[in-house]
Amino acid sequence: MKGIITVIGKDRVGIIAKVCVYLSDNGANILDISQTIVGGYFNMMMIADLSGAEKKFEELAAELEILGNEIGVVIKLQHEDIFNVMHRI
Fold first, then answer.
1. pTM
2. In Å, what is the CA distance from 79 to each residue of 38, 39, 45, 66, 86?
3. How far apart are CA 33 and CA 19, in angstroms?
4. Which of 20, 59, 61, 83 could form a disulfide with 4 if both were Cys (CB 3.0 to 4.6 A apart)?
5. SS in 3 state form for the chain?
6. Treating both helix axes as pointing N-terminal to C-terminal, what angle do 57-71 and 15-25 enclose, rounded to 10 degrees?
7. Which residues lie closer than 8 Å to 19 by C-beta, 6 or more apart?
8. Per-residue pLDDT in tens (0 to 9) along the chain, 89 residues
């Protein structure tokens, strides 16, 4: 099972580290990552393998949202299948 994680917000030190540590601590493996900073705003998209996670998808999504609030960014987790359907042309 793969998830698409997006992180958006004002750039600051430690955003990538905190998200990656959370994923690692929860058994998720990062398969791909892209990040950019435009005009002081941070934007990151990750594809993560969630098959090793012990928590349910919904719990991971909720905890990532809480983590985002704590570090001042918006973090969203979407299931790969839903992401693909939403962005299909």
1. 0.89
2. 26, 29, 13, 18, 11
3. 12
4. 83
5. CEEEEEEEEECCCCHHHHHHHHHHHCCCEEEEEEEEEECCEEEEEEEEECCCCCCCHHHHHHHHHHHHHHHCEEEEEEEHHHHHHHCCC
6. 150
7. 5, 7, 44, 46, 64, 67, 75
8. 899 999 999 999 999 999 999 999 999 999 999 999 999 999 999 999 999 999 999 999 999 999 999 999 999 999 987 766 666 66
